[in-house]
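Hey all, quick one. A colleague (J.T.) asked me to put the FE2/S2 (inorganic) cluster job into the tracker so the inputs and the structure tokens live in one place instead of scattered across chat threads. No bug as far as I know, just bookkeeping. Sequence used:
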Amino acid sequence: MSEIRTLTIDGEMISAPAGATVLDAAREHGIRIPTLCHLDGLSDTGACRLCLVEIEGNNRLQPACVTRVEEQMVVRSSSPRIEKYRRMILELLFAEGNHVCAVCVVNGHCDLQDLAYDVGMDHVRFDYLHPQREVDSSHDRFVLDHNRCILCARCVRVCDEIEGAQTLDIAGRGVASWIVSDLEERWGEARSCTSCGKCLLVCPTGSLFEKGLRHADSSRKADFLRYMVNVTRRQK
Amino acid sequence: MTIEDLYQIGALYREQLASFRAEIQICGSGTCRSAGAAEIQRAFESVCEEEGIRPEIRIVTTGCMGLCGQGPLLRVLPGDVTYTRITAGDAERIIREHVINGKPLKERMLPEDYPFFTRQTPVVLEHMGRIDPESIEDYIAHGGYEALAKAVTYQSPEHIILEIRNAGLRGRGGGGYPTGLKWDIVRRGTSQQKYVVCNADEGDPGAFMDRAMLEGNPHAILEGMAVAGYAVGATQGFVYVRGEYPLAVDRMKRAITEAERKQLLGNRIFDSGFSFRVDLRMGAGAFVSGEETALLHSIEGKRGQPNPRPPYPSQVGLWGKPTVVNNVETFANVAPIIHRGARWFQGIGTKRSTGTKVFALAGRVRDTGLIEVPMGTTLREVIFDIGGGITDGGSFKAVQTGGPSGGCIPEKHLDIPVDYESLAQAGSIMGSGGMIVMDDSSCMVDVAAYFMEFCQSESCGKCIPCRVGTVQLSRLLDRIRRGVASEQDIETLEELCVMVKDTSLCGLGQAAPNPVISALHFFRPEFERHYRDHVCEAGVCPVHSTEAAGDAAGIESGGAHV
Ligand SMILES: Cc1cc2nc3c(=O)[nH]c(=O)nc-3n(C[C@H](O)[C@H](O)[C@H](O)COP(=O)(O)O)c2cc1C
Ligand code: SF4
Ligand code: SF4
Ligand code: SF4
Ligand code: FES
Ligand code: FES
């Protein structure tokens, strides 16, 4: 088996296999680090910045999801600075899109909402940008509501890495970035989509959902992914 | 091709050059080109025809001669006489009086001791504006490819890396990372396949150093890349140029073809075991594509978005292989170092920042253009001695260095030396070399807002602090510009600056707040004048007029106006 590294996270001595991420190591030992773009089974991109941690000897905050454990590493997963930034990141997200939880299909089952509760985000001090975004309901069974999309790219990755369809991608730049299907066609016209529904299962917000779904039915969670990944690995 | 062949080509070409009675060099780069360099060249050609001396005169279009603000420039050899603001109509007099009668036009020529030129130390720009960028022979005649020959025929890769390390060369793309160390990491990488990438994306607003070098002396960059390839064990290089630089792309393409034809690129260079090919890749011109991991994605044909580092490209680069990514100017420094040695290079500049730096000097100075000075030259020397001071008798207010990642430096810091550490200490950075001089007609709030607007629209959108944080920062700055910001807004602005800086994924977001932070640091009263008194002293911002401000004073905070 692989080598073992010993490190400290939040004052706790822990060990983890070489090559593991700080996030893996922390979770293995019951230390909670909030994440949004990370999902077990998908590749990591370090985009949401919620998992930032302090590493002794390094002025820069580092994303736990892509930082590998090192011998003698001293990690802090929470500090006033980190807490503050996490709250601000969520505030920025709520101000960016149009998140009206009361009328959202996943109200009560939303990762974004949960995180906001967790970090104690009780108000948004930034301007709401109120973007004009569309709802793409051209697909037979699914809906993509751009108003609630936080561009975590989980759907893009699951479609590419697990389903292998590569239907979804991100186009545009900056705040004008958006999720597109195939060559920027409407989803209903995207011929590569297998309608597998995996993207719906990994979306952390109410951006992707099934037509006719009431929010009471929406307790979908991404656990299936681990199952899928294990099945795929076993087949190989 | 052997070294002897190379010398022969050079000697032959120099003989050809010497056979001309006179040489007329016309700047065909950037500003001069758009001011009609091509037409000027035709005028000179036809006057020479008329005078029956056409075959005796060499007329050549060169790269940027430096003093762009007084372009189009023209130089006459022998004598090295430079004329400024040339028009096609000047051809007759210059040919008749100067070239034929040997009497330069006193009133039109630039004084020989013009400080813009005499105070510079050209190393990477040595041949710029003097050689024909479309002729490999001209480059060879000026010592070109001798460093490569020397490297591959009798120096070991380890030796070259040591030489670059000893020279103290640091990356000119902005970060200032030691080039020799970077090469060494790639060299020690165990992969069979390695790559060398030239970052010629140059997205900084106002900067044109890299474009000028690609247009004016493309072989110098190729030679530097080939030496790097030899030193690290790479057989393939890429030049990544932004598509908005069509002339640079053309010149580079041509240079690659010519170098291949002469077997200075390709298989078994100088009959050594070293083979190296270079391909050109065009970028779509997004600022973030200059960030090295985004640039590599773009070369691989993917979306130009950054990745978290580590791993660095020197460990995991193009298609997962160890890759050297260096800036244009960095590569242009390589041949001179191999040629003249580390000790010579160390002798220029300061202890920790050796060599020279090229800047694009712009803004409210008398002489704008492309300059090269030893590291450690003070900002005052650059602006007042080389740049000739502020235009129209105005007074200096600030100099912005480092583009959208840099900051504004006020009068009281004008005597700091230009080197990586000093600029950082003054709250700015070296960056790639844009330098914008400002006088009282500039408003620092407006400048900060401009750069934030730039970063906001150039953000790739991958990470949240940069994608959304820059938009919020822009909005806050705009409120200040309009005179409707509150104290609370200023607090939020400062807090958000630090947050975006500390949490963004790549250098774009990490540096985006810099212009704001430095403007707030040095010019805070100016911000206060905007949001407290509703006055923009420079008269640039759309704040409430002074009278309206009187009325507004009754309503305790500007926020009430939104
Ligand atoms: C947003 C952003 C834009 C950049 N643009 C450029 C560029 O246009 N040219 C460049 O050489 N380096 C650019 N860089 C720096 C590169 O990432 C990289 O550090 C550099 O090319 C390394 O070369 P050097 O060591 O020779 O400086 C940029 C960095 C960032 C974060
Ligand atoms: S339904 Fe499946 S194939 Fe279609 S976009 Fe979603 S993940 Fe991709
Ligand atoms: S649609 Fe959902 S999963 Fe896809 S990027 Fe948006 S929020 Fe993330
Ligand atoms: S800092 Fe900006 S440019 Fe860099 S990854 Fe984040 S969003 Fe993209
Ligand atoms: S979970 Fe690590 S950056 Fe998103
Ligand atoms: S473009 Fe002609 S001098 Fe710079």
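Adding what we noticed when we looked at it: The two ends of chain A are 20 Å apart (CA to CA). The pocket of iron/sulfur cluster (ligand 3) is lined by residues A 149-155, 179, 202-205, 207-208 (CB under 6 Å).
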